[in-house]
Design goal:
Blueprint (H helix, E strand, L loop, with lengths): L17 E4 H11 L1 E4 L5 H6 L3 E13 L2 E10 L3 E5 L6 E9 L2 E5 L2 E5 L4 E6 L5 E5 L3 E11 H6 L7 H5 L3 E5 L3 H12 L4 H22 L19 H16 L7 H7 L4 H12 L3 H18 L4 H7 L5 H12 L3 H6 L3
Antiparallel strand pairs: 1-3, 2-5, 3-4, 4-11, 5-10, 6-9, 6-11, 7-8, 7-10, 9-12
Helix pairs in contact: 5-6, 8-9
Length: 340
């Protein structure tokens, strides 16, 4: 089944795409108290700053003093990680994933954001906060951030304060389909001026309304954690990371649940359950994502469809082409022709 995705209406004109290099990501670091890491790039490539990481659009909007709305529509070519620095301010964020996937960690909790999912995040400074975007996918997402300082000066946002007082956390958030569609159109449109600010403020207030409706200070323990964020023991985390590293390093191998369970020192049924809890998807859904992400990179480098299909573990190019089209919406040959 093709992952859920929210597309703008046909009348919406896409924003102009631009190439984003390591140097571009560095500018965001200073502005948002972040550091970026690029696992597949050498230190030399990172220091030069000219290597392209993604192509697309990142839009920033401050519809009012208390709110920061950021929309991103990126084709990701290099896997990148975002880490909050020690001087990052306390804040509450609402994240809506429209397309693609992202892995997020806050302290000892982790989750995978998938198309259509929403997340309420409270960062209280005492915890580590990071996100990981895998290469070979299109990522469309909207992030609404409210700083702790803004909450203290706007009585409408006071209900968010207990989230930070509880030392932060992650909670799933159900965002209505109509609002997700409106966010997708806002992300695509090139509106300017006061009209654009009013539209952004309206969307931001709707997101806040849903977050506040989902949250009540007396009901915090009942607010469900997103799939994959249930705490695991340190031993389980270490063993699950061993399994995931094996899948990341050798996506084209013929993995079986039994051999992976042996690697993780647990039974097949236990691995199946704990992996889904830790990463928000089944082992073989995760493996398929890694295979197709690798395939996208190889095709962009100009390798043939048949070669790529074999390298990423597909016996038949037709099966690979079907899976690739379902994931990215284009044929492998089209992705290969777009190499740059």
């Amino acid at each position: 089944m093709k992952p859920m995705s929210y597309s703008p209406s046909p009348a919406a004109m896409p924003r102009p795409a631009r190439r984003l290099t390591v140097a571009d990501f560095t500018t965001y670091e200073h502005r948002y108290h972040l550091t970026h890491r690029f696992p597949s790039l050498s230190k030399r490539h990172c220091s030069l700053g000219g290597c392209m990481v993604a192509e697309g659009y990142i839009g920033e909007c401050q519809p009012c003093r208390s709110l920061q709305l950021i929309g991103s529509d990126l084709n990701v070519y290099q896997t990148y990680e975002t880490h909050a620095r020690e001087d990052a301010p306390a804040h509450v964020s609402i994240i809506v994933m429209l397309e693609g996937c992202a892995e997020l960690e806050l302290g000892d909790r982790r989750c995978t954001l998938t198309p259509g999912s929403g997340l309420l995040l409270a960062y209280a400074c005492q915890q580590t906060l990071s996100a990981r975007h895998i290469a070979g996918q299109r990522v469309r997402a909207v992030n609404l951030t409210v700083l702790k300082q803004a909450q203290e000066h706007d009585s409408r946002l006071a209900s968010l304060a207990p989230l930070l007082q509880a030392q932060g956390g992650l909670w799933s958030l159900s965002v209505p389909e109509g609002l997700r569609q409106s966010l997708a159109e806002w992300l695509c449109l090139q509106a300017q001026g006061n009209a654009a600010l009013l539209q952004a403020e309206g969307l931001a207030l709707q997101l806040l309304s849903h977050a506040l409706s989902a949250y009540d200070s007396t009901l915090v323990p009942r607010l469900p954690l997103p799939t994959g964020s249930q705490p695991a023991s340190s031993r389980d985390q270490r063993l699950l990371e061993r399994v995931r590293t094996q899948l990341d390093s050798h996506p084209g191998d013929a993995h079986s649940l039994r051999t992976l369970a042996e690697l993780g020192c647990m039974s097949p049924s236990s691995l199946r359950e704990k992996f889904r809890q830790a990463y928000g998807q089944s082992i073989f859904d995760y493996l398929r994502e890694r295979r197709l992400a690798l395939a996208y990179q190889l095709l962009r480098k100009g390798e043939s469809v048949q070669q790529v299909a074999t390298q990423v573990g597909y016996r038949h190019a037709t099966n690979f082409a079907t899976a690739f089209r379902q994931r990215y919406g284009v044929a492998p040959s089209d992705a290969r022709n777009c190499q740059g």
